[in-house]
Design brief:
single chain; about 350 residues; alpha/beta; Nucleotidyltransferase, domain 5; 2 domains; 5-stranded mixed sheet; about 15% strand; disordered N terminus
Length: about 350
């Protein structure tokens, strides 16, 4: 970490999660001043008033840690889990992370901007991670490239980047890849029921490629096929679902079946993306690919094999894992804040 940035300006990135806020600083030379996680409690379950104050504390903490004066900050990038509007208004239906009723329809971007007294640029966490992956992969060529990212977590996040910038859409809902319907024929086992999603859809990508998808749809089916499997003895399906990744790394047949279905689902999702955006790169992130390097590369290869590209697209498209996923949200949020600044900023 840097002790001082002298007269250089900076932007701050704040990644808000269900349990923790992570923060970083991006300086005017394009360098991140925080190497690893710099976390503090997010307190989102206590409602928006407490949570916004916690974000302000994370902001103050990252400046103190890096030795950056407040006057040097030109803007703040904020990301949160969705769903939320392009302006950072949390869905009126709430969400998995924002369960307190006071969050429904709450303008988290505006509230933090008022609290800090400086511009705040908002994106959802999937878009922020997608922007960071794009930036790392393409470097100086990023402004002339496009990409699509899928981030497998509790749900399935994602992002679409065009010409180096996030495509947010009219209502801020662009890049909600998890709720795109994908073909199920050939993906599901012979007697496997069409998977359902928490959003009310059946057969969307998140219903398969997410931790919720494992718990709700995939694991119950495969446990019926493997009744003597050790996971059948777990106290709950939710507990068992969290153990699947480790078993997958070890080559457990049941776990491998589950991850093959998830990777196939992502390949089919990317096939749809190929016909809408024809991106230069497809990125995959999430806990499943943060396992061992070998397992992550195996998973990515299954995704690639199930992405049906035309010959012309195969010659130019890249497939890669989202790097530094723990930092991707905060760093992507900072990059978005930097992009929002006037070109005359020095």
């Amino acid at each position: 970490m840097s002790d001082s940035v002298g007269d250089r300006w900076v932007v701050v990135g704040l990644d808000n999660g269900g349990n923790a806020n992570n923060a970083t600083v991006l300086d005017s030379a394009g360098g991140f001043l925080v190497e690893g996680l710099l976390e503090s409690p997010s307190r989102v379950k206590e409602g928006p008033t407490v949570a916004v104050e916690s974000l302000a504390e994370a902001f103050d903490n990252v400046l103190a840690t890096t030795g950056v004066p407040r006057a040097a900050v030109r803007a703040v990038g904020l990301d949160t889990p969705g769903p939320a509007s392009a302006d950072g208004v949390i869905s009126t239906k709430g969400s998995t992370n924002f369960v307190d009723p006071a969050w429904r329809g709450f303008d988290v971007r505006g509230a933090l901007e008022a609290r800090l007294g400086m511009p705040v640029v908002y994106n959802n966490d999937g878009n922020a991670a997608a922007l960071y992956a794009h930036h790392v992969h393409f470097g100086l060529m990023g402004a002339s490239r496009s990409s699509v990212s899928a981030i497998v977590g509790t749900g399935l996040g994602g992002g679409v980047i065009e010409a180096g910038r996030i495509v947010s859409g009219a209502a801020g809902m662009a890049g909600e890849l998890g709720h795109v319907h994908i073909p199920m024929e050939g993906l599901l086992d012979g007697d496997q029921a069409t998977p359902s999603c928490n959003c009310g859809f059946f057969g969307d990508a998140e219903s398969v490629a997410s931790l919720t998808g494992i718990e709700r749809n995939l694991l119950p089916h495969w446990l019926a096929k493997y009744p003597d499997h050790p996971l059948a003895a777990e106290g709950s399906v939710a507990t068992a679902a969290k153990l699947v990744r480790g078993l997958g790394e070890a080559g457990d047949p049941l776990a491998v079946k589950i991850f093959e279905q998830q990777a196939t689902a992502l390949g089919r999702l990317f096939t749809i993306a190929a016909n809408f955006t024809d991106p230069d790169a497809y990125f995959v992130g999430g806990g499943v690919v943060q396992a061992s390097a070998a397992f992550g590369q195996w998973f990515l290869e299954v995704v690639r094999k199930n992405t049906n590209l035309r010959e012309e697209q195969q010659k130019v498209a890249a497939f890669a894992l989202v790097p530094d996923l723990d930092m991707a949200g905060a760093r992507g949020a900072a990059l978005a804040a930097r992009q929002s600044l006037p070109r005359t900023t020095t």
